[in-house]
């Protein structure tokens, strides 16, 4: 019968062999954490390889995603649909085993990790989602939602600043079902993180004291190669009402005679000769990619997982019998389905906005949408990075979430833009919620990589950004976005909306809520925006991302605008008409969606026969050249802003009727 060490060695063998075959990868972390993984996955992790999407499974996140062969080995050995051919195909084109774990490629991969610190952040989001969902659905005698979130992380994750943001909040919110294993091997790419004999070093924090200050339970100095010590630590962690950090002392590259404990095995293959020596050292008598059948049997989680899910199904049936409406709601939400009447009710509200013709800041229009849509969506979960009063993200039905009471729908993230955004991704990945989080558009910069990860993973995170241009005024260039919208629009699979009035604001929210294959960025103004009159056809075309708001007979030019500059474009068109120059005005609240439309529709909005085009937007000019072409002009920003009242700045930087008219005149000669 295989021992625990033998079973852990199966991970080590698969990891070093796959990295060697790919001639690329990171064998050190999988070999160092194999003993921890063996205890957790075989004795504690609640999961069903036959149904990787079971709602009440435990979540496992490999935050140190460079050690991806650890996760792939675990999935393969446990019985997930990840055959040995995929292990052999590690890091190859179109394999299910890419260099870093990618959500959606292999079953059982809960999130994409690689950018250090974001995995632990996603794990915080998952644990938070579990706690809130449990508070909303569990009843006495019915613990419908009851699972842990486990995460592995290394020195790199802890050095990244985002780990402070999210772990601080996790302690405050008392996420007792979050258990993190710190792979304290003392090695990063550049060598010994604490230096040698007190000389040098770059990571000398007192990590246990740091996490204790956050309000975590810390279990220090656990031997990461002692199965009994690991087992005892997990038991202690599961008994705590606080999140737990288990600090595991490990040897990177464990088993490699000449490279263990050194940076040499962190991010490069061991080499054929060293692998042979490692096999000998570990007593591993099998060829590359060969795992004995009794090892597979010992590792398999299928029978146990099916039994656990079957028992939970019985619990759900009893719950359904006693609480049929809640059970139906739970199924709807965890399946990612919207209420059947949402779309019709949202359309009715959009029509109401059109009829009302109200002039308000689009951030206020956004709050109005939340007040309208919030009661329709029990799954709506909001928050802001300490800017609720400015972002206007709190609506009339908001209930605060705290460590002692998670039965709410609003999170105070504090000044943690990056952490908020990555936590949102974890909530989205967990399921059961549609979540939004807000900050100023300028501070998207802090969070950009989490926004990118949402797009990469095709997750429905809704990023709300207010104070959208130099029009915010006196706070000056430190707070005035210029290039940020271009960065968002350049992100694949991200829909970026900049509405011009209450109608486009409502359409943007409806679009973001109904979208299930990626994130949306909703960008709103501080200043009031004039309402635009529309025909029924124009109203229906708002959702197509770009549409003709003003149609002229025999148009000589086209003005393209977004947000606050749509009103400017309409006024310029009026003045041009007085000069006998016919101009179409196109509002383009979401250029990405417009570019997804069929060519015939795009031609009706931007006909190729009209090459005299001027784009107007109080943000960076460069984005618009693909729409205006070589013959067109852009009225936009090419420098940072200044500190002054918004209306003064708009005039200073050329956002005036006179300047727009002048640019149109240039294009038509």
Pick out its properties:
669 residues; alpha/beta; six-stranded parallel beta sheet; five-stranded parallel beta sheet; 27 helices; 20 strands; 44% helix; elongated
Structure characterization notes:
The chain is of the alpha/beta class. Helix content is 44%, strand content 14%. The protein is built from 27 helices and 20 strands. The protein has a 6-stranded parallel beta sheet with strand order 10-9-11-12-14-13, sandwiched between helices. It has a 5-stranded parallel beta sheet with strand order 1-2-3-7-6, with helices on both faces. Strands 16-18-17-19-20 form a 5-stranded mixed beta sheet. Strand 13 (495-497), helix 20 and strand 14 (520-523) form a beta-alpha-beta unit. Helix 12 packs across helix 13 (324-334). The chain is elongated and about 90 Å long. The mean pLDDT is 98.
């Amino acid at each position: 019968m295989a021992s625990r060490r033998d079973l852990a060695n199966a991970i080590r063998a698969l990891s070093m062999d796959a990295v060697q075959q790919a001639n690329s990868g990171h064998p050190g972390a999988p070999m160092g954490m194999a003993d921890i993984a063996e205890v957790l996955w075989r004795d504690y992790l609640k999961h069903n390889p036959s149904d990787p999407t079971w709602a009440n499974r435990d979540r496992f996140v490999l935050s140190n995603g460079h050690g991806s062969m650890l996760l792939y080995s675990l999935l393969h050995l446990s019985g997930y649909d990840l055959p040995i051919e995929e292990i052999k195909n590690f890091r190859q084109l179109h394999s299910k085993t890419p260099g870093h774990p990618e959500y959606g490629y292999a079953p059982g991969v809960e999130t994409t990790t690689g950018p250090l610190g974001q995995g632990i952040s996603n794990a915080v989001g998952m644990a938070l989602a579990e706690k809130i969902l449990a508070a909303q659905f569990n009843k006495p005698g019915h613990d419908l939602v009851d699972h842990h979130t486990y995460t592995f992380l290394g020195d790199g994750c802890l050095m990244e600043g985002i780990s402070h943001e999210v772990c601080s909040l996790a302690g405050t919110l008392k996420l007792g079902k979050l258990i993190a294993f710190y792979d304290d091997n003392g090695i990063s790419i550049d060598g010994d993180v604490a230096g040698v004999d007190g000389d040098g070093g770059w990571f000398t924090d007192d990590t246990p004291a740091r996490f204790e200050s956050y309000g975590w339970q810390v279990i220090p100095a656990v031997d990461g190669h002692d199965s009994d010590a690991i087992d005892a630590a997990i038991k202690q962690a599961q008994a705590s009402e606080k999140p737990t950090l288990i600090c595991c002392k490990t040897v990177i590259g464990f088993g490699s005679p000449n490279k263990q404990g050194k940076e040499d095995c962190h991010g490069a293959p061991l080499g054929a000769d060293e692998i042979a020596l490692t096999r000998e050292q570990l007593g591993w008598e099998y060829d590359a990619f060969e795992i004995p059948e009794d090892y597979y049997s010992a590792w398999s989680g299928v029978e146990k997982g099916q039994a656990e899910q079957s028992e939970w199904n019985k619990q759900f049936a009893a719950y359904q019998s006693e609480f049929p409406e809640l059970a139906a709601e739970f199924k709807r939400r965890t399946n990612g389905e919207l209420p059947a009447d949402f779309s019709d009710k949202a359309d009715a509200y959009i029509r109401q906005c059109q009829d009302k013709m109200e002039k308000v800041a689009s951030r206020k229009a956004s709050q109005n949408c939340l007040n309208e849509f919030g009661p329709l969506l029990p799954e709506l979960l909001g928050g802001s990075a300490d800017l609720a009063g400015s972002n206007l993200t709190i609506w009339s039905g908001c209930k605060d979430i705290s460590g002692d009471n998670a039965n709410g729908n609003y999170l105070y993230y504090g000044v943690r833009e990056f952490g908020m955004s990555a936590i949102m991704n974890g909530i989205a990945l967990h399921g059961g919620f549609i979540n939004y989080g807000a900050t100023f558009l300028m501070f998207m910069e802090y969070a950009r990589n989490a926004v990118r990860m949402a797009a990469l993973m095709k997750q429905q995170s809704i990023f709300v950004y207010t104070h959208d241009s130099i029009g915010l005024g006196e706070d000056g260039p430190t707070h005035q976005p210029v290039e940020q919208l271009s960065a968002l629009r350049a992100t694949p699979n991200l829909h970026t909306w900049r509405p011009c009035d209450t109608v486009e604001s409502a359409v943007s929210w409806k679009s973001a809520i109904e979208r299930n294959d990626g994130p949306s960025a909703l960008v709103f103004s501080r200043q009031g925006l004039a309402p635009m009159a529309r025909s029924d056809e124009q109203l229906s075309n708002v959702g197509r991302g770009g549409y003709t708001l003003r149609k002229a007979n025999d148009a000589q030019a086209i003005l393209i605008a977004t947000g606050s500059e749509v009103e400017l474009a309409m006024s310029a068109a009026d003045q041009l008409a007085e000069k006998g120059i016919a101009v179409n005005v196109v509002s383009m609240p979401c250029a990405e969606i417009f570019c997804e439309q069929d060519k015939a529709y795009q031609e009706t909005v931007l006909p190729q026969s009209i090459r005299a085009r001027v784009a107007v937007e109080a943000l960076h000019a460069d984005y618009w050249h693909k729409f205006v072409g070589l013959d067109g002009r852009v009225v936009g920003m090419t420098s940072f802003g200044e500190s002054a009242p918004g209306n003064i700045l708009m005039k200073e930087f050329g956002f005036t009727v006179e300047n727009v008219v002048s640019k149109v005149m240039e294009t038509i000669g």
